[in-house]
Write a structure and sequence with these properties.
CATH class of the largest domain: Alpha Beta
Distance between the termini: 40 Å
Number of helices: 10
Strand content: 15-25%
Helix content: 25-40%
Structural class: alpha+beta
Radius of gyration: 22 Å
Number of strands: 12
Order of helices and strands: EEHEHEEHHEHEHEHEHHHEEE
Amino acid sequence: MKEDRTDFIVLEANPLYWNHKRRPEIKKIVFRNDLTQNQALHYCMDREGEVDIVTEVSPEYALRVQSSKYAKLVFNGGDRIVTGIFNRFQEDVRFSDRRLRLAFNYAINQEEIIREAFHGYAEAVPAFTPPWAVDFPQELKPISYNPSKANQLFNEVKWPDERPLRIVTPEIYQSVATMIAAQLKEAFGVSIKLNILSGRDELRWRRVLAEKKLIPNWDLFIGSPSAFFYEGTPAFFHRECLGADGVLRASPVLPEFEKVYQAMARETNQRAFIERAKEVDRFVHNEALALFLCAPYKLYAVNKNVDFRPYRTTFELVDTKVCRGHWSRNV
């Protein structure tokens, strides 16, 4: 699939904007669609006057950006989480049993995954709500890595003999899924089948999951819902993964989840709404309704003479400024 876009989009500041305190600091912004990600990074890190900000920088490029003559690395909390969805439609594997879901969570070393797969640019999460969100329950802590406890619970539930564990993930999370597969194999001693989706295969797979007409042929999906939010996090992450209308839900509708979620959705008082949102995250955590992993940071390569202050949920430039040494001031 190919998306047709113009090579350049030019935005010019409105000097008469009514809010004097929020008037833009930069007269003109040019978005370049004529470059690949690698080209944009090259022009930002190795040249002056070509590209000032590159979004969606991969963690493996972070060290290169930091060592650049022209660019610096800027990051903050992101608008997505990486999580594992259990397939509870299947009858031969008992993901409906909380003990099995807990076993999977105990078997995962979140810190190792953050360190190796995200190069440290992520935060462990107790459930679905990122730690920076207004409705994050501060008392919740990530489930501790405990392979012996994981093995105990796994054996109590009794995994089917000779049954491989089937994991599926899009290409972007291949390294994460590979680490998870290794950790689960070590904890449980089961064979693993890892399926990396790309292109049309991923689109076809997502359609099957969204439609819920067929039982998916996997046990665990590693993926990342994302959203534009500041509060009411469950409306985006929890609902998407577990809700009755959630695209990523891989189970029959969960009445207990719907009860706590709808209590939040009906709340009109803002303070009570935030507390209800916290209750949803607590419920998901206590029931271990998913494989909880991390909230990746957003990474940007930014010209050293640009004062860029990123937003967590959207890409905004209203607070961005250029310093005296910036190339545009010498043109």
